[in-house]
């Protein structure tokens, strides 16, 4: 040990050899297993890849689920393969699904990189979820390798004055951090859902930029800086969360590498340049779209809360994130209102997380000067969580498990540090302490493995996911609505009436629950009407549901078109007339409602005089609709009002361009009754010619 200390003091710190490598004492190199031997590189890589496939290999049999429709199966750009890449780069993230002219998300989203990878896969493999799941696992494994290499290099510097106390690589902090990260069940939403690739690529390229900065600090090679900037840019093209690594990288260098601040900040310059370039491109693509607070609970979950309730609820979600890191059960894709309830400031669910976050922040600040690893982990966690926390700006959701994919790295590092550094010290470095550490680590990995593989199965497809997670997120408006919707699809494809009715009954229960939680949930209301129609043509419930939608959207055309399509299938004219009149009371200027009332009264109720006001109004509202004029003329003619019948029939004939033999014949009859024989002969002759 004395020789080591002497050798470390010889020569100035942070100078460079002829090969531009940081001077590291040879004795330290040999004695410290953190300097992984070349022969172990392949072994480490193989273990991490095998671990990734053990944990997520069962996802290869999964289908598309949840938002995979938006980025793959329903995305116009992705499905063009290579030909769609230009459009992917030229439009908002959602343009390929919702349409180029649609801005479906406030503020816009420019995240083309993951879509490009999906387009490339589509070019070679078509719609093949197995391939996409396979590549997600590969990307996870590469992320695990980067985590190992990064923490390995960081701890080389951290331990360089005390290298002999570091453990072997297979029971080391870097290796444990990588394995815990790969295994943590909270990552299933990212890995098992193909759409989660944006999160995978974001962390992968963020870590890559950190790795290249570390190597630049060690070697002073310009190529490393260029690579760092490029990696950072690719991370931003994946998701904006990459920005947090502008703070994370200096923190890592400060806590572990002890390089001068000026030199570290110089290494950040390429990242800043990459960020500026990214935002210039982003601005040119999606324009001046800015975030705004929607008044829809599904897009602004805090809309029904006051200021104090909002931040109390945010504190509650921050507490849930910590809980999921320590105890990842139960898991759900659905944290929509009101699975996450409204929390008041006095609620212990807000106060406990507040105290915990204050405590860990104070600890982190106090321990900064001592470069305490837990302090680094806390700041890494808080920094990477900041963008998705809702604390600084709204993100349109309470929380999601994918939002802590990046932040969970801090937890995995802190847990590994405790198990393989502090726990042995607490047990006085006895031989049994190593076995205790390995036993605890092994138990955690076994539990993680079972939970991860089990949760993967829930992501088999959207129906499986929705029906499984609605049992966890029982008070979620969105979860209940989606479960109800997919049960309708399943019922439509089932020929067994008993099973079909059972599915529809359950669908109605879920949809009513969704509407009870959030009465303005329009899609759920439409689906509720559809469920009643499929089950027993319950017109009363269907109309009640449509009228509810019209309270919120009085001009919604889909309500009227659906209503007319449904009610016209009834064989009871009195029932039809009753509901049409109810809709007329909502909007008396609807052409379609007036026309259909007129037709029912004319042809089904034989109330000719009663039909005339409605048909006349319909023809006035929409004077270009020939059949309205035709029906009005026929009504007048049927009660002998020949003069009143003539003009509507002539207008109908003009609109139909004299191609309807029966109409021409009726006009001839009207002229006959008006004693205009010349005109009568003219029209009757035209009718005869068309008839032949």
Name its key features.
single chain; 692 residues; mainly alpha; 68% helix; disordered N terminus
Number of DSSP helical runs: 32
Question: Given the helix and strand composition, which structural class is it?
Answer: mainly alpha
Average per-residue pLDDT, rounded, comes to 90
Low-confidence stretches: 1-35, 162-166
Give the DSSP E fraction (strand runs of 2 or more residues). under 5%
Describe this structure in words.
By secondary structure, this protein is an all-alpha fold. Among the domains are: 68-126, no CATH class; 206-290, no CATH class; 307-453, no CATH class; 588-692, Tetratricopeptide repeat domain (Serine Threonine Protein Phosphatase 5, Tetratricopeptide repeat, Alpha Horseshoe), CATH 1.25.40. The protein is 68% helix and 0% strand. Residues 1-35 and 162-166 have low confidence and may be disordered.
